[in-house]
Amino acid sequence: xxMPDTTTExxxxxxxxxEDGDIAAAFQTLTAEVERLHEEKNELEERVDNxxxxxxxxxxxxxxxxxxxxxxITSTEAGNVVRPFHAIxxxxxxxxxxxxxxxxxxIEDGEAEVIVRNETGYxxxxxxxxxxxxxxxxxxxxxxxxxxxxxxxxFYAKAxxxxxxxKLDSDGVRNILGExxxxxxxxxxxxxxxxxxxxxxxxxSEKDEGERSAxxxxxxxxxxTGKKRLQLVADRDEWLExxxxxxxx
Length: 249
Known about the structure:
The protein is α+β, with helices and mostly antiparallel strands and 249 residues long. It has helices spanning 5-19, 23-57, 84-88, 92-108, 126-136, 143-151, 155-158, 170-180, 190-202, 236-247, and strands at residues 59-62, 72-75, 81-82, 160-162, 165-169, 222-225, 230-235. Helix 1 runs antiparallel to helix 2 and helix 5 packs across helix 6.
């Protein structure tokens, strides 16, 4: 693969500096180019991640025809199937009543946790809101969001502390899912793990939804590409400060 023109020109410039005896300048020139290429690589990875997200979110439409009653729309993310013509014929009022009765019964039986939050002085991260939503039993989360709510509470206990950072790689995420769900760790495929990690990293951002990025260093958890596998990385001091704030200490 040939180098981009800008890189070729930079290398030529560094060679001239080296030949002129200005080794320090040549080193600085090459260092700056490496940093530029690294940034370009991160941007390309982010673009690939976004494109994969778009593909994951697209619904699949199945219809063998000719009867429109056979038309179905399947969410590739959550696996839910909707049959529009069947839905049109259902009675919404009856469904609403049954849903409310079921929710009340679950609360009375202690199967659904009712969360009462005091004024804490901070805005919850998206992942905290997702966890509260899952605990309330109201549904509405995607499959990736559901898995992210399972991983986040176990992050600190499972992450490795290294150089002032906490790191949890894709194998660690897979093991948590194996421990916390009915599905063995080895049965979780790589793409599912990757999407879950990306969702979790985005959900620890304080930015508006449209501005969130899994690889944003401002996140509480940032998605990075390690030598062999993906990693969720947190600044250790920042994480401990976050934990203290949430615990009220």
